[in-house]
Amino acid sequence: MAGAVGRINALSVALWSGLSIDEIGYIDLAYAPPFSAAWDIIHNAAQALRRII
């Protein structure tokens, strides 16, 4: 649940700011090896969507 809350917060800020799919694909998110990977599902999803559209 905590991971979902963080992702929702990040995406809501991105949408409110008017970021493009390209910008969301490379947005800077917190990175701490024990807790998160360098590439989050937000990055992966945005980059996959960009390849489709």
Helix content: 55-70%
Total of DSSP H or I helical runs spanning 4+ residues = 3
Biggest sheet overview: none
Find the CATH topology: Enolase-like, domain 1
List unreliable stretches of 5+ residues: none
N- to C-terminal distance: 30 Å
Which structural class is indicated by helix and strand composition? mainly alpha
Describe this structure in words.
With 53 residues, this protein is mainly α. The chain has one domain (2-52): Enolase-like, domain 1 (2-Layer Sandwich). It is 62% helix and 0% strand. It has 3 helices and no strands. It has helices at 2-17, 21-25, 41-52.
Fold topology:
Elements: H1 2-17, H2 21-25, H3 41-52
Question: What can be said about this structure in brief?
Answer:
The chain is mostly helical and 53 residues long.
Short descriptors:
single chain, 53 residues, mainly alpha, Enolase-like, domain 1, 3 helices, 62% helix, 0% strand, FAD/NAD-linked_Rdtase_dimer_sf
